[in-house]
């Protein structure tokens, strides 16, 4: 059996190493052994969100797995026969649904399947579900990945209770992605939501973001507001620029004591900061594209070369040898596929 050995504390040393490594194990059929999982984090080892991502991939690929427990710092994953399945993931409390999808989507792109995941849709340190749907999936769509996502209910920290469902078709036409600098902004769009909170929270977030964007750009700004119910209160906003190429995003979450206007401006400022660099890919999308770019090929300019991006490149190259070239230009740079991996 071919084993790929991964040091889980390398580079960024977080959960993303696991998600990418186990997804690639399913795609390639190679077994993977990950040691020193999140060794330098204050709470080392697998957290429930990471474990659930791994269990979802276990189910998809009928894998044999050792070390799949919360707190485990070593994992062995031996994929079996993968086939399209309906995967249900019940994250207790507010574990991040989008991070589970970060593990599941690349693998499902090769196999096909559908999913239903409950947990947190808008939680700190992870892509808000609207970002995943409107920024990440948009970019993946340009590469030929066909994935649909429906947000059934919001879930926030600490109670969760959000629900997302969707499906992915087997990736047939892999289209290389070439995206350097944006040339024109057609419009700005966004979604501002409030859950178990008054409607004015969503409206004030949207208004503040719109006003901030309009101080800098002439393009139309259209931010939807959404008010809904779930297990607990929460709010957030995602805004994105629709350019002549990809979409760049900015997002922020509400917190008790943080005025809605501050939340709206934070999301807008993050987006405006990315746009200043002229790069076609924002700093979060950059790392998320890496596993897909390896197969589709292409070249992108990113607003920031983050540790997450470099670590994801490293994981991909543990499986396939040299694939990427990364050239820094200021805080951003160019990521180029120099040897595309056969899917
Ligand atoms: N505000 C945000 N908007 C969009 N994407 C985000 C945002 N914050 C984080 N992300 C994305 O979420 C992912 C976080 O990966 P990371 O490995 O840090 O997560 P983790 O599993 O929580 O790990 P750990 O707890 O070990 O740090 C990255 O892909 C990053 O781009």
UniProtKB/TrEMBL annotation:
<feature type="domain" description="RNA 3'-terminal phosphate cyclase insert">
    <location>
        <begin position="181"/>
        <end position="275"/>
    </location>
</feature>
<dbReference type="GO" id="GO:0006396">
    <property type="term" value="P:RNA processing"/>
</dbReference>
<keyword id="KW-0436">Ligase</keyword>
<dbReference type="InterPro" id="IPR037136">
    <property type="entry name" value="RNA3'_phos_cyclase_dom_sf"/>
</dbReference>
<keyword id="KW-0067">ATP-binding</keyword>
<keyword id="KW-0963">Cytoplasm</keyword>
<feature type="domain" description="RNA 3'-terminal phosphate cyclase">
    <location>
        <begin position="10"/>
        <end position="326"/>
    </location>
</feature>
<comment type="function">
    <text>Catalyzes the conversion of 3'-phosphate to a 2',3'-cyclic phosphodiester at the end of RNA. The mechanism of action of the enzyme occurs in 3 steps: (A) adenylation of the enzyme by ATP; (B) transfer of adenylate to an RNA-N3'P to produce RNA-N3'PP5'A; (C) and attack of the adjacent 2'-hydroxyl on the 3'-phosphorus in the diester linkage to produce the cyclic end product. The biological role of this enzyme is unknown but it is likely to function in some aspects of cellular RNA processing.</text>
</comment>
<dbReference type="GO" id="GO:0003963">
    <property type="term" value="F:RNA-3'-phosphate cyclase activity"/>
</dbReference>
<dbReference type="InterPro" id="IPR000228">
    <property type="entry name" value="RNA3'_term_phos_cyc"/>
</dbReference>
<comment type="similarity">
    <text>Belongs to the RNA 3'-terminal cyclase family. Type 1 subfamily.</text>
</comment>
<feature type="binding site">
    <location>
        <begin position="284"/>
        <end position="288"/>
    </location>
    <ligand>
        <name>ATP</name>
    </ligand>
</feature>
<dbReference type="InterPro" id="IPR023797">
    <property type="entry name" value="RNA3'_phos_cyclase_dom"/>
</dbReference>
<dbReference type="InterPro" id="IPR017770">
    <property type="entry name" value="RNA3'_term_phos_cyc_type_1"/>
</dbReference>
<dbReference type="GO" id="GO:0005524">
    <property type="term" value="F:ATP binding"/>
</dbReference>
<dbReference type="InterPro" id="IPR020719">
    <property type="entry name" value="RNA3'_term_phos_cycl-like_CS"/>
</dbReference>
<dbReference type="InterPro" id="IPR036553">
    <property type="entry name" value="RPTC_insert"/>
</dbReference>
<feature type="binding site">
    <location>
        <position position="102"/>
    </location>
    <ligand>
        <name>ATP</name>
    </ligand>
</feature>
<feature type="active site" description="Tele-AMP-histidine intermediate">
    <location>
        <position position="308"/>
    </location>
</feature>
<dbReference type="Pfam" id="PF05189">
    <property type="entry name" value="RTC_insert"/>
</dbReference>
<keyword id="KW-0547">Nucleotide-binding</keyword>
<protein>
    <recommendedName>
        <fullName>RNA 3'-terminal phosphate cyclase</fullName>
        <ecNumber>6.5.1.4</ecNumber>
    </recommendedName>
</protein>
<dbReference type="Pfam" id="PF01137">
    <property type="entry name" value="RTC"/>
</dbReference>
<dbReference type="InterPro" id="IPR013792">
    <property type="entry name" value="RNA3'P_cycl/enolpyr_Trfase_a/b"/>
</dbReference>
<dbReference type="GO" id="GO:0005737">
    <property type="term" value="C:cytoplasm"/>
</dbReference>
<dbReference type="InterPro" id="IPR013791">
    <property type="entry name" value="RNA3'-term_phos_cycl_insert"/>
</dbReference>
């Amino acid at each position: 059996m071919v084993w790929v050995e991964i040091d889980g504390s390398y580079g960024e040393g977080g959960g993303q190493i696991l998600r990418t490594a186990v997804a690639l194990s399913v795609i390639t059929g190679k077994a993977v052994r990950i040691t020193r999982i999140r060794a330098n984090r204050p709470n080392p080892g697998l957290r429930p969100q990471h474990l659930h991502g791994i269990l979802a991939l276990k189910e998809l690929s009928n894998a044999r797995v050792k070390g799949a427990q919360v707190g485990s710092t070593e994992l062995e994953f031996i994929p079996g026969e993968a086939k399209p399945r309906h995967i249900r993931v019940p994250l207790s409390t507010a574990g991040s649904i989008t991070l589970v999808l970060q593990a599941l989507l690349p693998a499902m792109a090769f196999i096909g399947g559908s999913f239903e995941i409950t947990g947190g849709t808008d939680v700190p340190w992870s892509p808000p579900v609207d970002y995943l749907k409107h920024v990440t999936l948009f970019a993946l769509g340009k590469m030929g990945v066909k994935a649909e996502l429906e947000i059934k209910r919001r879930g926030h920290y600490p109670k969760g209770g959000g629900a997302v469902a969707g499906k992915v078709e087997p990736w047939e036409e892999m289209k290389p992605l070439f995206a350097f600098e944006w040339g024109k902004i057609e419009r700005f769009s966004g979604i501002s939501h409030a859950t178990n909170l008054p409607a004015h929270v969503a409206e004030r977030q949207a208004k503040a973001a719109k006003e901030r964007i309009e101080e800098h750009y002439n393009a139309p700004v259209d931010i939807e507001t959404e008010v809904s119910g779930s297990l607990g209160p929460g709010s957030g906003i995602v805004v994105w620029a629709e350019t002549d190429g990809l979409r760049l995003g900015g997002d922020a979450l509400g917190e008790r004591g943080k005025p809605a206007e501050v939340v709206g401006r934070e999301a807008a400022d993050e987006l405006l900061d990315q746009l200043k660099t002229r790069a076609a890919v924002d700093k979060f999308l950059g790392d998320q594209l890496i596993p897909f770019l390896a197969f589709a090929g292409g070249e992108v300019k990113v607003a920031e070369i983050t540790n997450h991006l470099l670590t994801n490149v490293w994981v991909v190259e543990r499986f396939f040898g040299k694939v990427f070239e990364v050239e820094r230009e200021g805080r951003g740079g160019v990521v180029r596929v120099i040897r595309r991996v056969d899917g």
